[in-house]
Amino acid sequence: MAVIWAVILFGLLIFFHELGHFIVAKLVGVKVLKFSLGFGPKILGKKIGDTEYLLSAIPLGGYVKPLGEEPGEEINEADKLRAFNYQPVWKRIAIVVAGPVFNLVLAFLIFTVFLGLKLPVAIPELDSITTTIENVSDDSPAMEAGMQSNDVIESIDGKDVHDWNEMAEVFSQNPGKELSLKVRREGSLIDIAVTPKPTTVKNEDGEDIVIGRIGISKKLDAQVIESTSILSAPFKGIQAVYGWCVLTLEVVVKLFTGGLSAKQIGGPILIVDAAAKAASVGAFTYFNFIAIISINLAILNLLPVPVLDGGHVMFLSIEALRGKPLSEKIMILANKIGMSLLLLLIAFVFYNDIVRIVVPWVQRTFGWG
User: Fold this and answer.
1) Distance between terminal CA atoms of the chain?
2) How far is Cα 369 from Cα 362, in angstroms, rounded to an integer?
3) Which is nearest to 124 in space by CA: 240, 278, 253?
4) Are 110 and 287 in contact (CB under 8 A)?
C-alpha cells in the first residue's frame, strides 16, 4: 500500500506542475510536442492535435516539451511563430514559472477544501523545529542537571545539533550514558552534563526496545488558520499557502546557513514512508502532507540553480537585461554545473533516506547491527 499512496502523491505533484507549464504554453501560443508523466521509456502514448501525451516508466518526475526549447533545434520558418525560443522573454518566463505556481495551486485547492469543511490548517513556528526547550519535566534527568525552559541546546559531546529531531535521536541512542551539553541561556553558553534515563518503549514492529530520555519537551507553537464559511475558505486558503511558503523559505535559509541540520533533508524513500504513515492516519493527514510537499516542491524549484525552473528564470532575466541571451557555451557549462549539483543532492538525500529508514528496517527485520 505504501507504494500506491506514494504513486498517488507523486502523480498529483507531477501532474499539476507539468499542467502549469502546458496550459500557459498553450495560452501564449507555443506549440507543445510532448506532455509526459514520468521519464524514460514510454508505457502509454496518444497524440492529440500537436501534442503527444505520454505515461513513462520512471515516475519520479515528468516533462513538457515545447517546440524550439532545445538549443540548435531546427525549426521550419512557418513554425517559428510558435517556437519557444522565438517568444518574447516575458512569455518564456511565464511558461517556466507556471509549473511551481501550479504546485501552489494544488496546495491552495487542498487547504481550501479543508477550510470549507471547517477543518483547521496549522502552520508550525520555526522555533518548534529548533532545539529550544519549552518545558522540563519534574524529577527528570534534565531537571536534575539544571536545565531550564528556553534553554537552547547547541552541542552534545562536542558535536553541533541544529534541530530537535537530530538532538532527540542522540539522547535516544545513549540510555544511561552521561552526555556533555553546550547550552545557550540568555545569551551565555554554559556546560551541562546529563544522563538520559533508560526507558522501555515499543518500536514500529511492536517490540520492546530501550531508549534514552531526559524529560524535555519542545515548543509546539503554531499558527492555526480557520474558516467560518465556505465563502471565506478561498481567502483563508491563500493565507495558509502564504504561511507555509514563508516557513519553507525560513527552513531553506536555515539549512544553507547551518541553522538546521542537512541530515533532515529527505528524498523519495522518506516521502514514500511518510506518505504511507500519513495515509494510515486518515485522508486529512494524507492530503495535508501532499499540500505541504507541493509547496516545498514549488519553492525549491524556484531556487536560482541551473536545470531547475528558477535557473531558467535567472537566465531569461539576464537575457532581458542584456537584450540578448548568454552564449551557448556558457549555458551548456552552467547546465552541467547545475546538473552535477542536482546529482550530488540526489545522492545525499538517498544516503539520508537509507541511513534513516532502510538501515533501521534491515536491523529490525534481520536482527543485524
Assistant:
1) 28
2) 9
3) 240
4) yes
3-state SS assignment for residue 107? helix
Show the domain range for 351: 88-125+222-369
Within its chain, how far is the Cα of 94 from the centroid?
A: 23
- Asked if 208 and 226 sit in the same domain, the reply is no
Identify whether residues 145 and 275 lie together within a single domain: no
Q: Is residue 246 part of a domain?
A: yes
Catalytic residue at 18?
yes
- Provide the whole-model pTM: 0.77
**Residues β-bridged to residue 188:** 185
Picking from 218, 251, 269, the residue at the C-terminal end of a domain is 218
Please state, in angstroms and rounded to a whole number, the distance separating the CA atoms of residues 79 and 23.
19
* pLDDT tens digits, 283-324: 888 899 899 999 999 998 998 888 889 999 999 999 999 888
How far from the centroid of its chain's Cα atoms is residue 130's Cα? 17
pLDDT under 70 in the chain at which residues? 1-2, 71-72, 127-128, 204-205, 219-221, 258-274, 350-369
Active-site residue, from 18, 69, 169, 319:
18
Q: Are 183 and 232 part of one and the same domain?
A: no
Residues 33 and 65: beta-carbon distance below 8 Å: yes
